[in-house]
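Board work, copied verbatim: Succinylglutamate-semialdehyde dehydrogenase
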Amino acid sequence: MSEELLSFEPATGDELWRGAVSDVDQEVEIARRAWPEWAAKAVTFRSETLRRFADRVKAEADTLADLIARETGKPLWEARTEVESVANKVDISVKAYAERTPNRRIEGAMGLRSAVRHKPHGALAVLGPYNFPAHLPNGHIVPALLAGNSVLFKPSEKTPATGAKLVELFHSAGVPHEVLRLVIGGSDAGKALAGHPGLDGLLFTGSARTGVALSRQFAGQPGKILALEMGGNNPIVVWDTADIATAAILVVQSAFLSAGQRCSNARRLIVKDSLADRLLDEVKALANRLIVDHPHADPAPYMGPVIDNEAADGLTESFLILMSNGGQVIRHMTRPVAGRPFLTPGIIDVTAMPERPDIELFGPLLQVIRVDSFEAAIAEANNTSFGLSAALIGGTPQLYDQFWANARAGVINWNRPTNGASSAAPFGGIGLSGNHRPSAFYAADYCAYPVASAESDAMRASIGVGLRDPEGSRLVTKNYL
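↓ predict structure ↓
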């Protein structure tokens, strides 16, 4: 009897889905055999196939949104926005492919020309996360398929049902079954896929721990592409502003959207000391009003549960550790539903802590740091090994210029949440947040490689120096062509 993987709804604990664990060797072999034929198709053929996929997503938007909400626990309204992002990704990727990987020809003298074209890598693995189980892997899959690669997609073991539905929609749109393969399994399957010699590269979104392990694994394989997006310990800085109410809204959106389970969520609120008490009163009051409930509740919740009880237990333990090491509680993190992974927003002032942990606390937990100067605020913002997103709330254009120039992050916003990023722009970070291969609009860069060519319709060649004449007595030293 084959091994099975099961998925459960975080909000209820009910079984949602089950499926057989994949044979990784077999899946890689199928994808490798299939990719040359797919790569040989015209890019217009591939783009039209993917546009049909977008149409299929729109046609089944309600079904897909309901599945995402049930499997992740996120509110239904948020799951619907994820589905919209999945459908919109196709047109964005087609535009990005044309802009980032264009064909170029440079005409020269005597019929000579230079050309630049792009080729797919081959068989690429995509490892997807659980927080956006459709949108984030789709952000790798679509540009990879568009460029002519075959794809082996392993969804998170916590959200396999959404992954299976996503692949079903691709196949129903005409993407060959052999070109896009679904790999079901846990961490063992992920390790087997990442280490498979038949892969030409891996596209990953997930934790820094796993990303660092993959970086080490791929370090001795320069011929394979590796794109990493690994989250962040993101700062939101609030400075001189009279509009405390709006600043508080931006802080709450940054910290608690998606129950804090976005890689771009704010983890650290760095605030001017003279503003701190007023701002924190507003933030706490607003956090108190946030509805935490199951995805389909009425009225609609702002937050659902985190992904599972293991994650909820780890976050509550982290909150207690911060308390026991000098953190001052502003708002307690609680478990409102016994036995289920619902968490209320937790806010804690860690200014007095002698050492603050530089980790990504992936949930609704916000740490507060008070500072006296803007230079100190920037220093605190950069006091991390991560570097995904950062935001400045308030201040002047000159202060924002200073912040932008000195903050170390791949996404830097002003008077916008840390988690507000456009798919029409690159998305990625530095340090433990990524390996300088941003996704979103720049995903085209890591899905194909440039090939430079020197070309001529007719052969022309000569050797103008270093040859003996036909008699064998003299060197030819002229005719430098």
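The chain has two domains: 4-231+431-455, 235-422.
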